[in-house]
Amino acid sequence: MDQDPRARSGACCPNTGAGAPVRRPRRPAEETREEILNTAEKLFRTHGYASVTIADIAAELSMSPANVFKHFRTKTSLVDAIATRAIEQTLHALKALASDKPASERLAALAHHLMQEHLAEQKDAPFVFEMILVTINEELDCGDRFREIVVGMIAEIIHAGIREGVYHADDVPRLANASFDALACVIHPVMTGMEKAGIMATRCREVVGLIDAALRSPLAK
Amino acid sequence: MDQDPRARSGACCPNTGAGAPVRRPRRPAEETREEILNTAEKLFRTHGYASVTIADIAAELSMSPANVFKHFRTKTSLVDAIATRAIEQTLHALKALASDKPASERLAALAHHLMQEHLAEQKDAPFVFEMILVTINEELDCGDRFREIVVGMIAEIIHAGIREGVYHADDVPRLANASFDALACVIHPVMTGMEKAGIMATRCREVVGLIDAALRSPLAK
Hints:
- 2 copies of one chain form a homodimer.
- Chain A is mainly alpha-helical and 221 residues long.
- Chain A contains 12 helices and no strands.
- The radius of gyration of chain A is 23 Å and the shape is elongated.
- At the A-B interface, helix 9, helix 10 and helix 12 of A face helix 9, helix 10 and helix 12 of B.
- Chains A, B: This is TetR family transcriptional regulator.
């Protein structure tokens, strides 16, 4: 099955019979998986998801399609893994964000950072929007993962605001979910693709202000 | 230019020379425009925007493409007009909505109604989402028109809430805009296409609750 031309043209292993394909040395599966993701992401970003096949990805890696298939059975599972990886990376950047500041500043910083990430992504690569639509239309897990992480961060900020005595909330997870949804206009990747960056920045500030006012109100349940 | 086969096969006008194409009686331009919009909307909805041409619309109407072109110079201008018409129709339905109820109930009714409209639209016709993406990617005027109308309605509700003594706001237009943006997760046509109706209904209720709490807070500017 291994039709890797690089492997075949490489140094020949003495115990390989003539005519039999030369196998490349085995690498850890995790490393191969990362390499496939990197290449798939690069090709999707530059040529578009729709026009790149698993065979193209395999060819770019000088790997057999079967080998790619062993790790990812569909193009959508590749997109899901690419998006999940990007989300996990964002998570690390966000964790340290303004953690020494008051809760309302942290909320603003979180929203602003997520918006900027999506704006920058989409400016870089016009085909990113196509990938985002795939994750939505195919209801991939990465969307739930993104929600779960960001809602968790908002909940943490609300708890901090309660400790500071500025926020009032009986049901933090519920308010964190509502806040996440209210922020969709500026942090949802589909929404950030729709407006100019200047308008988005104003919207972000105003909606964060609205959420902040709601969280400060003793009426918020 | 008029190559309408129906007109040619119709009753012949006595003063028309043999061989000359028979012209149909002129109709008011507004009526023709509506007829073109109805047919274009029907074809876009059933076959998809991308696969329907101006020539297809003209053929369906037994009209010359030049005649359609006289009213709409591009397919995008057709989509803009179809969407604007739908928005104006929604406006009429919304104006009467719960106008005798307290402001917070009116806000909930407005958001719920807009969400239901979009959900119903998209359930009916899978190609509606494609048209919505066209209005966004081409930055058509209908998007601004939708925003303008709904922000105006929210501002009217906030003013009513201030009169009732439950809402506090110095800058109503600013809060109306922020509320509209916060509601994007449930009323933006791209967002309504992404989730199941039950989840959307819960989200709508929760985000309206958050906005209501913000508007009740004397901290909301």
